[in-house]
Fold:
Amino acid sequence: MNVLEPTTFLLRYHEIAIKGDNRSWFEKRLLDNVNKLLDRHFAKEGLPKRPFRTWREHGRIFVEAIDSPELRDVLICNFGMTSFSPTHIVPTDLSILKDRAVEICEQIFKTRSAEQLKGLTFRVLTRRSEKALKETSTEIDCEVGSAIQLKFPELKVDLKNAKFTLGIEIRNRRSYIWTEKVKTHGGLPAATQGHLLALLSGGIDSPVAAIQLIKRGAICSFIHFYGAPFIGPEALEKVMALAKIVNRYQPKPQPVYVVRFGEIQEEIAKLVDPKMLTLLYRRLMFGIAERIAAQINAQALVTGEALGQVASQTLDNIESVSSGRAISILRPLIAHDKEEIVDLAKKFKTYETSIIESADCCTLFADRHPMIRCSIEKILKVEELISLESLIQKGLENTVAASAT
Structure:
């Protein structure tokens, strides 16, 4: 039986590198997140021990593991990285580097004819983070590039727009050669910027909003307002599936706080103008979410609102719905249009789940033409009629935490 050899992956980052005195702390967090994400991945595979190894070296993080599409997906989900490359490890000796570079190219080009190689552009890109060789990066580029072109004279050098790049990372004892660079999402490592509570619906926007803030270093727990008994279990199943996808980007999966909300909505609908219902629902959701956030030490709420996208998201209504909250409400998608949000949903792989048809509690009993400009004074008068505080307490009593792993 053939036993696969592990591959060493070189992980790059950018924003962390400009963190000054805090850089080492961010690097350690990034490495810790890689370990946790890989541990979760391999635990699902049922393996008894950690089948990978990680370490740091001067501005880079390395992972040694068996290459697979699933492993690469895990690496892509690790925010803070800009790209990664599978590498070939070579002793730091210029003669050996040249020979190994030629061998790697032979392996890559072995199925291509001279005619197919004709006009293919290439370049060598050396990064010398440690001055282990006397030659400069440019001199190494020229030496290795000349050796490759001697073997493959059909290749043309193009330093700016090459179709094929052979990269070299020079280190003291051993160096790394790569020919593939997989782009990742960038950002900051998760769990470096505090804890948030994201309002998660079954739509396209809210999962993207949560992921955008995880990308900026936050950890997101979730709260979902479930319209049972007027909405079936498929709506909740869809939300839980979305939470599982979002949790792929976090080192530790966070729970979903499910608020049974339908009966509360029914109570409000008996007393309130249907044109105002969606806004009252939102006010109540924020009130309940604020209390849950305090219980779990979350520092802010997160919504997927985009300015002017629907009637409840006009500037007047956003202001009225948010008024009086003691907690900050973050809206990372506020200036995005729908097409931009859809593109992000596809990029983060939430889109296919978000478009599964299911009911939405926000429209229960509401008028098809809701108010687009409602003052906070008008909302507060209505809240006096519905006993908002008692409804918040009822919502809290009907909340359960559900695992989304």
About this structure: The radius of gyration is 27 Å. The chain has two domains: 7-183, 195-402. The CA atoms of residues 333 and 368 lie 24 Å apart.
